[in-house]
Amino acid sequence: MAPKTEPAGLKLRLVAAQRLKSVLAGDNFAPLTAAELADGRDRALANRLITTALRRQGQLNFIIHALLDKGMPGKSGTFEAILRLSLAQLVFLPDLGAHSALFLAVEATKRDPKARHLSGLMNAVLRSAQANSAKFGMLSDDLLIPDTFGDTWLQAYGEEAIDGFSDALLAGAPLDLTLKNVDPELIETLGAEPVLADTVRIEQRDRPVEALPGYAEGQWWVQDAASAIPARLLALEPGARVLDLCAAPGGKTAQLIKAGYAVTALDSDASRMERLRGNLARLNYTATETIVGDAGTFAPTSLYSGVLLDAPCSATGTFRRHPEVIWHRSVGDVAGRVRLQRALLTNAFRCLDTDGVLLYCVCSLEPAEGEEQVEWALDSLPGLELFPVTAAEMAGLEQAVTEKGLVRTHPGMNPGGLAGGMDGFFVARFRRHR
């Protein structure tokens, strides 16, 4: 008897469910790799299902609440993950067809010993969703942003910006690159468009990053347009000694080296520092020092003319690439990050020489991690003063400069007039006058 073959599409559904289950439990999303799903088309479809389920999480929460009278069953293995993937397909990806969503969801549920007793419930819920798919497909985009942050963001950025946040969440992030040298021929070969300064953007690509032109030759590195802003604002003479705190994976370190500074890169994570060294080697860049150490206690033998602190934060500004982050974070998480940032700012100040420049930045949309930290630093660190950023320094993105000379980007902004948005980022520049 010939061995029974698996239904087409079942394996990718099972693999996708396991990945989504781990993200729902608190892991950061990472796209499935060739080692997990060898077939490129299967892998692309699985990643599409997962990211749609994550981007639409708020709307799926509403749908699940409407369909499951008794709530989500406890201790049910991959049931919730399979349900979310299948609802995402039925309601938001109708081009993939309803039959496969129903059939494969039930089959995938039966393959999980902890969920198989719920296969009948899975079938009933999805058939109800199919019958109501038109209504569910018209759900408000207001559901996309959790209440944890929605009210704060509305007050900080306004209703029009929040509409842009929803659009950016659903669209995802294009690929931004920082070029070693602005080469029009390379930009054309990449199929990219200039964004700001030496940042270019690739809207669509059909191959992995490592296969793009110029990667092996070290002609660029991946870096969101917003993340590339802080290092450009250091405003020191070439050759100045600069300390890059929390440096890994090294995008800002590479920018500082490119600007001609003598850079010490420090990070507490040894494996991430190895990645930084590898990235610099590919670019043929050399830092003066790369140190595995604690940014909160590092004590240099001599002070630096510049310090760049890209502080650990809630990372809410990265939701175009990590939509799960806005559902994982709580008010308590933000408060914990605020305390850590203040400790790091204090030590960054200790490492800074008189007349030196300190750049503080976070990929967060929370005022508590940005604007409020500036007020704290000015009140708590004697001798530190604000060194305002000017609109002229932010050509092409002047609207990101606040009245106080701080920089605040958000996903509703389109740098260089290009679609695709940018990360939410905050940058403050200080100078030490004594």
From TrEMBL:
<keyword id="KW-0694">RNA-binding</keyword>
<dbReference type="Pfam" id="PF01189">
    <property type="entry name" value="Methyltr_RsmB-F"/>
</dbReference>
<protein>
    <submittedName>
        <fullName>MFS transporter</fullName>
    </submittedName>
</protein>
<keyword id="KW-0489">Methyltransferase</keyword>
<feature type="binding site">
    <location>
        <position position="294"/>
    </location>
    <ligand>
        <name>S-adenosyl-L-methionine</name>
    </ligand>
</feature>
<dbReference type="InterPro" id="IPR035926">
    <property type="entry name" value="NusB-like_sf"/>
</dbReference>
<dbReference type="InterPro" id="IPR023267">
    <property type="entry name" value="RCMT"/>
</dbReference>
<keyword id="KW-0949">S-adenosyl-L-methionine</keyword>
<dbReference type="InterPro" id="IPR049560">
    <property type="entry name" value="MeTrfase_RsmB-F_NOP2_cat"/>
</dbReference>
<dbReference type="Pfam" id="PF01029">
    <property type="entry name" value="NusB"/>
</dbReference>
<feature type="binding site">
    <location>
        <begin position="246"/>
        <end position="252"/>
    </location>
    <ligand>
        <name>S-adenosyl-L-methionine</name>
    </ligand>
</feature>
<keyword id="KW-0808">Transferase</keyword>
<feature type="active site" description="Nucleophile">
    <location>
        <position position="363"/>
    </location>
</feature>
<feature type="domain" description="SAM-dependent MTase RsmB/NOP-type">
    <location>
        <begin position="137"/>
        <end position="433"/>
    </location>
</feature>
<dbReference type="InterPro" id="IPR006027">
    <property type="entry name" value="NusB_RsmB_TIM44"/>
</dbReference>
<feature type="binding site">
    <location>
        <position position="310"/>
    </location>
    <ligand>
        <name>S-adenosyl-L-methionine</name>
    </ligand>
</feature>
<dbReference type="InterPro" id="IPR029063">
    <property type="entry name" value="SAM-dependent_MTases_sf"/>
</dbReference>
<comment type="similarity">
    <text>Belongs to the class I-like SAM-binding methyltransferase superfamily. RsmB/NOP family.</text>
</comment>
<dbReference type="InterPro" id="IPR001678">
    <property type="entry name" value="MeTrfase_RsmB-F_NOP2_dom"/>
</dbReference>
<feature type="binding site">
    <location>
        <position position="267"/>
    </location>
    <ligand>
        <name>S-adenosyl-L-methionine</name>
    </ligand>
</feature>
